[in-house]
Specification:
alpha/beta, seven-stranded mixed beta sheet, 14 strands, 31% helix
């Protein structure tokens, strides 16, 4: 991922923030604001396990609030039946969950895709790996000052995430809509410099991914990550365009369970993956998120 010098200043000045820009991870998350984490106490309605939690082995998983923490909370009882007391720790950025995992503060995390994970490990020297994919969140274009992709005004302002991984996804989606052309329409590392044709003279504005929904009032269109669209209350039915199910992005950016290298097949990891890839979770994702989140299993 590429970053801008301004990002480095913000990062150093605020004591490490979010993730998935320049050459330091910071993507679909917050940049330039203090990371916040809180333990999630919400739990989906379910029959209380007979086994007391004091007899269960702790299993601590870091996650973004939506949909990751919501999905995790729905499997607490299923994990209890397997002997584990799930503790969900919510993070509002994309850097701290990986640092916490690397240091051993948590057992796993659930919020990122493999390209971001690989870049993070390369930049930070961490040894984290994917234990498997759980879901995919389609990127979508939402209207701001303008509402019609068929009548995009000349010089229209379009907000895209300011980290390389997600900026590339946004540019690929804009290219799919015929608004721009890229050197390579399969390049998951594309940046604005890779735009070869821009007939509408679009102004591509790089914005912290989490802030794009709030920025819609100031731009013509915004390309929004699925999780931030959910958190902002944006409805997938209101999207002007979505990543296609057979797109490069759909095949690349499934969100995974990350663990420390060597723990992919630990009993804890296997139990976590079993419940998260169950038929009940697949049904939950399909019914609850109505296309904003899609199962990857």
């Amino acid at each position: 991922m590429k970053k801008k010098s301004i990002f480095w200043a913000a990062l150093i000045g605020t004591a490490v923030l979010t993730a998935c820009g320049g050459k330091t991870p910071a993507a679909e998350g917050t940049k330039g604001t203090e990371a916040a984490a809180k333990e999630s106490t919400a739990q989906a309605p379910a029959k209380t396990p007979e086994k007391g939690t004091k007899n269960l082995e702790p299993l601590k998983v870091g996650a973004s609030p939506s949909p990751h923490a919501e999905i995790l909370n729905a499997v607490k009882n299923a994990l209890a039946e397997r002997g584990y007391a799930l503790q969900v720790v919510e993070y509002t950025d994309y850097v701290q969950p990986n640092l916490a995992l690397d240091s051993g503060e948590i057992d796993a995390n659930y919020y990122q895709h493999v390209p971001y994970l690989l870049n993070f490990c390369k930049e930070r020297g961490t040894k984290l790996v994917s234990a498997g994919a759980i879901h995919y969140e389609p990127f979508a274009i939402y209207g701001g000052k303008s509402k019609d992709l068929g009548a995009v005004p000349d010089g229209a302002k379009i907000a895209v995430p300011n980290d390389v991984t997600n900026e590339a996804r946004a540019l690929l989606l804009l290219a799919d809509q015929g608004l721009i052309k890229l050197k390579d329409n399969t390049d998951v590392n594309a940046t604005k410099q890779d735009i070869t044709e821009n007939p509408k003279h679009l102004e591509i504005i790089e914005v912290e991914a989490a802030q794009i929904p709030r920025s819609l009032k100031d731009v013509d269109f915004g390309v929004v990550n699925g999780n931030f669209a959910l958190s902002a209350g944006l409805q997938i039915s209101d999207a002007l365009a979505l990543e296609k199910a057979d797109s490069v992005a759909a095949k690349t950016y499934s969100n995974v369970i990350a663990v420390r290298e060597g723990e992919e097949q630990s009993e804890k990891t296997k139990a976590l993956m079993e419940v998260l890839t169950s038929d009940s979770v697949k049904e939950l994702i399909e019914k609850k998120y109505k296309g904003s989140v899609l199962p990857s299993f």
